[in-house]
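subagent[fold] <- orchestrator: predict structure for attached chain, return tokens only, no commentary.
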Amino acid sequence: MSGQQGTIRLGIVDSDSGFLKVLTKRLGAAGYEYRVLSGGVPPEELVAMKLNSLLIDPIVLRSDPWDYLERVCNLLPGLGVVVCSANSTVAQRVRGLRIGADDWIAKPCHPEEVLARVEAVVRRHRRGRATADTGPLVAGELEIRPDQFQAFVSSQSVGLTRREYELLHVLAGAQGRVIEREAVYQSVWGYAMAHGDRSVDVFVRKLRAKLQRHSPGWSYIHTHFGIGYRFEPEPAGDTGDTGDPELPAPAAEPAEDAAPAADIHRNRTGV
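subagent[fold] -> orchestrator:
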């Protein structure tokens, strides 16, 4: 796709010949630049291809698909990753999104939906890159670096995943305003939050833990119960915010490894 959004360079990791035939015909008509890849291409090779989006069916990966997906998402934070797969379970879709995939499309699907979702992911990433030009944001002991998709304390990386960084970036960008959970989800995950989804709360808890570990003298994210969250650095002890009592106990937290990689292959074969 060319024009105001610019040309989209898409890599496709899929072996479904019928799906590829229909999709690539539509991609060509829409002006995309695309490459059909034969499997799990190493992340450094993806960099050399100068892709800005990757459409991937984990079923075609010979090695652990979750490990590969996580490596790509963490090592290439500027790459829009869309999973497109059949017979996936809720646990698998949740795990993929929490690992760092930007979207998940269930097959069978219409090529126009695939294009629309890829374009939406690319738009979000381009908006994120545009903010990198504004330079780092310093808050308390924390330095948030949009150009590296990371936060630092005394030049030491906090070790955020891409999704955790996006959450921090959204909260810090609100400049002290309270953001409702639904708005946070829409900004970070890119679509409306389902009723009862606690992904925002789970990720806030993980983000808080990392910030506290690296900067124990400061409190950064404050809960407004029943509403959402506010980012404002305050010396620890100056705030009565003690965490997230609304959340279930840690044992009830959805596990990111709840669906083993082999499940994807069993779903394909029916075993």
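orchestrator: received. Logging for downstream: The CA atoms of residues 184 and 234 lie 21 Å apart. Confidence is low (pLDDT under 50) at residues 245-271.
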